[in-house]
Design a protein that fits this description.
mainly beta, six-stranded mixed beta sheet, four-stranded antiparallel beta sheet, globular
């Protein structure tokens, strides 16, 4: 069974950092380009970042560029998102997603608040 399990979310103050993880099972992560997307309350799904299979290429939404870093450890079958200088507008449920078919996990909640 293909699974993506996100973790690492939580409550953090503005300016703080969090590192999200996405553990893949049921398939080999290194074969797929992966993304992080997020959804804030009452809003649609927003793309955050994408990384290719060999980690040679990564792109970011303008809203997170310079603050977030996407990475992957194919040996651990895990995708990461390092989030720095967090802002209240970064509050959302964050999902990792397989680019080829859009499959995503259950998400992890990130709340940025004083």
């Amino acid at each position: 069974e293909v699974q993506l399990v996100e973790s690492g979310g939580g409550l953090v103050q503005p300016g703080g950092s969090l590192r999200l993880s996405c553990a893949a099972s049921g398939f080999t992560l290194e074969g797929y380009t992966m993304s992080w997307v997020r959804q804030a309350p009452g809003k649609g799904l927003e793309w955050v970042s994408t990384i290719n299979r060999g980690s040679t290429f990564a792109v970011y939404a303008d809203s997170v560029k310079g603050r977030f870093i996407i990475s992957r450890d194919n040996n651990k079958n895990t995708l990461y998102l390092q989030m720095n200088s967090l802002k209240p507008e970064d509050s959302a449920v964050y999902y990792c997603r397989k680019v080829d078919d859009g499959f995503r996990g259950q998400g992890t909640q990130v709340t940025v608040s004083p």
